[in-house]
Amino acid sequence: MSGDDRADGREPVFETGPRLALCALLQGADWVEFRTARDMLGVSDSAISKHSRTLEDAGYLEVRKGSVGRKPRTWFRLTPSGRDALRGHLDWLAQLRHALDPN
């Protein structure tokens, strides 16, 4: 995990902007193209760029750049540590929900 390796699973990097949604999208795929991620999340190019950089800096996201024909393309995928951090954060959220509403 990034930062201070929280034992409870909470990962603050997922708590700002569409980062959690981006990771949730990526958990079920190998590589996802930038435009697909942008369109599925309903955010701007600059928002995807900013949040993907934060996730990449945390070691949770791998970015691949290339081209299709003559058009540049960018693809994303979760790293193994990104998958682990996402799983831990989702478990933490489930525990929090249960603690707030045990029924």
From TrEMBL:
Keywords (A to Z) from UniProt: DNA-binding
Domain Winged helix DNA-binding: 19-96
Transmembrane stretches, start-end: none
Gene3D superfamilies per the UniProt record, alphabetical: Winged helix-like DNA-binding domain superfamily/Winged helix DNA-binding domain
GO molecular function: DNA binding
Domain of life: Bacteria
Protein name: DNA-binding MarR family transcriptional regulator
UniProt cross-references to InterPro entries, sorted A to Z: WH-like_DNA-bd_sf, WH_DNA-bd_dom, WH_DNA-bd_sf
Pfam families recorded: HTH_34 (PF13601)
